Amino acid sequence: MKHPARIAALAVAATVAGLALTPAAALAKSAISAADWAEAVAAMNSPSYSAYSSTTDAVALSDDAFPEKYDLRDPDGDGNTSDSVVTPVKFQNPWGTCWGFSAIAASETSILSSMQADNMDISDGIDLSERHLTWFAYSSAPESVVGSAQAGEGFHNDTASDNYVYNLGGLAGYATSVFASGIGPVQESDVPYKNEEDIVEVKVVKDGIPFYEILGLSELEGYAKEHTKADGYTLSAYYSETLKDETTEATWKVDDSYYNVSAYELEESHILPECATFDESSNYSLNQEGVDAIKSELLAGRAVSIAYRAESSYANEPNDLTYFNIDTWSSYTDIPTGANHAVTIVGYDDTYSAENFIAAHRPDHDGAWLVKNSWGSEDSDFPNENDWGIVDEKTGKHTGYFWLSYYDQTICCAESFVYDLDATYLSDEFSIDQYDYLVDDTTLENEYDEKTSSANVFVAEQDQMLRALTCRTVKPNTTVTYEVYLLDDDVKNPTDGKLVATVSANYQYGGFHRAALDEKTYVPMREGQRYSVVTTQHCETDGKYYICASTNQAKLTEEHYDALYRKLVQQKSQAFLEKKREAWVEQLEAFGSSREEAEAQAAKELAEYMSSAQWDEDFENIVEPEAKSEADTQLNTYYVAKVNPGESYVATDGSWEDWSTLVEDVAKDNAGADNDVVVDNMPIKTYAELKSFASVDELKALAAAIERAKAALASAKISADGSDVHPADTWMTQAAHDALAAAIEEAELTLAEAGADYATTLAADTPDSEAVRQATSILSTDAVKAGTKQAAKDERPAGEQAKDERPASEQAEGGHVGDTAAAAGATPKTGDAGAGAPAAAGLLGIAALLASKRRAKD
């Protein structure tokens, strides 16, 4: 069976005609314009991201559907921010972890909005860990958690630096991959954004000149007192990359014990249509569907993670501010260039004036996004304090926010998150069956005209109750049908079993989705049960069927290393020469030349430079070493996918094939000229509550014990002290009678929930065997006392005399009912009002055990 695979991504390979790579002198013969360089560099730097959202598939809403402006910091717009669902601005320094901060900020707001909708107190806010997300996005799955079959899947860092991963960059989709696997998010207090040694870096600016100090955390307060704003100093402090020697790495790694820990459960991610679209001639146009989609998410209480082209990708990085107005804190890039920074949209204003943007780069229309950055704010405390962003009119402090035009041509990769607050009680009493631990960089998207399905086959590692199924879709308006089959050990195909659950759902956007089973249709499974989940994805818009899988960069071969090195030399050359050219343009403009004159003269200067020995020297000493260093790093950082036989399957028209037999060819088909890729299993997961199931025999024993208790309850007389009850009869107080009746009711409920058919039930919520044995033992003695009315013998007619219907082995000597209290280990007393309590306690103990195992689903 042929699987035509294609990788849908935003990034395209850039080629620059006539730009030879070696020797360096050949570069001098290439007439390359600044626009050519900028375009090539932009395309090569643009983020690789799956085209989950087709701009033609979404439905645009009218402008009337949205308010003119909206701000999640003040959702009701009354000027009082007590209902804000936006967490404080943080500071990502010293690392390039903007993507993690963006995804976490969007997640925090989504969770707070859900809490607010459920009338929960949000006054304390929440603070989730960016360090945890970043570290485990760039880690491999530990065997102690995932077992030997999937151990080692994920990212491998063979460089000498553990901390290198914090500067690798990423996208919000990385967070989706990590969180969907049950790896986070966790609380900031568990994995704080700091090194373990409490070493701090301080950026100090005096008279416009910056310098840096490395201090211990305990020294920071004293240093700040000696370098105040009153004395002309501006400080920003954050935890350092290194120790005080400025050479040894500080410890930022995270222990594997946090690998499968999460404070909240990801339910869904929404990958939204792009706001910026381009025709075949690269002409830009605003995609209203994308704008509407972001607004819709905001109004639903969800902040949106995006990527765009910032003029610096780090806080306080020197830049020329060609597209950023520092006076109004507004940004607009009017050329199609690659994104280099991730931020979070928390609001919008249709009336935000185009006049607020730099005059030379001003959009034709009003309207801008209110964006939360990760470069600190002036009203935050260490380590999140930094003078950046829109100035608050009341406090006069920088807030950490800025405005981004709707019409910015670099906005991309918009994604939001939805979390299940009802599942947070699960703690470690739940499991996720999955095979796809590979972080998704570029999604493999397979398209078919005929019905096509994908499946994963799992084995329950312990008793569990299957409650949710997940998948990932690659197209908006996709209907997914999920099917769960119980399989025998010897079957070969995922559908060769008993169909026990079917769920169907339509998803507006592409992304990660979780389909919850109705509580009444949860699927119980015993340890060792083999089962499959089959998903069929049908896009209602184009009528196609789709399957998808995560891909990422494989370890480079020698051939691909050479190709990568040549490409990097080209990129570094372009960047180096463009920087030279821009410097000449600025210098000429400073001396009075017009922009056009400066551009023309700079081109001549550049041509002369590229023909000189100086360019050859710079190429050899600067460009080539940088290219080699980056190529070596990529050689030593790569991903591994583990696809084993019997895990994932695909089928067209019902003909199933093991994915492991196809994945190697699929990877080869998608390899580039300078890289190989690895392809993962199908992104199908299951979520289950862990249970302790009773056996069928134990259920039968419980049922028999209930019947004996009911018989005892029916035959016992109600008495205050037994003095009015014949010794041949049994009695109990009214309180004991009521307690036993309630206990029987609880035990019957337990039994009913386990299922009436003992031969086939898997006993979802039943107590453990020891509790059943104890209850059976107590009930077998009957929960009653013998009467004490003075009489030598029962003079009543035989038909009126009480009968002991217990088995002979359980009857007390002389035919009297045994002492239940004694059986329970208590000291009996004639007339004890609690005489019926032991049996009630036994059955209520079962109910208590049940309650401890069940979740508060209401």
User: In which range does the helix fraction lie?
Assistant: 25-40%
Distance between the termini: 47 Å
Low-confidence runs (pLDDT<50, min 5 residues)?
Answer: 1-62, 755-784, 790-796, 804-837, 844-858
Largest sheet: 10 strands, antiparallel
Structural class: alpha+beta
Please state the overall shape, judged from the principal axes of the Cα atoms.
globular
The total beta strand count reads: 34
Report the C-alpha radius of gyration, rounded: 35 Å
Annotation field: number of helices: 17
- Average the pLDDT over all residues and give the rounded result: 81
Please state roughly what percent of the residues sit in beta strands, choosing from under 5%, 5-15%, 15-25%, 25-35%, 35-45% or over 45%: 15-25%
Write up this protein.
It is a single chain. The chain is an alpha+beta fold. Helix content is 27%, strand content 22%. It has 17 helices and 34 strands. Strands 1, 18, 19, 21, 22, 25, 26, 28, 29 and 30 form a 10-stranded antiparallel sheet that branches. Strands 2, 7, 10, 11, 12, 13, 14, 15 and 16 form a 9-stranded mixed sheet that branches. Strand 8 and strand 9 form a beta hairpin. Helix 2 crosses helix 9, helix 9 crosses helix 10 and helix 13 runs parallel beside helix 15. The longest helix is centred in the last third of the chain and has 33 residues. The chain is globular.
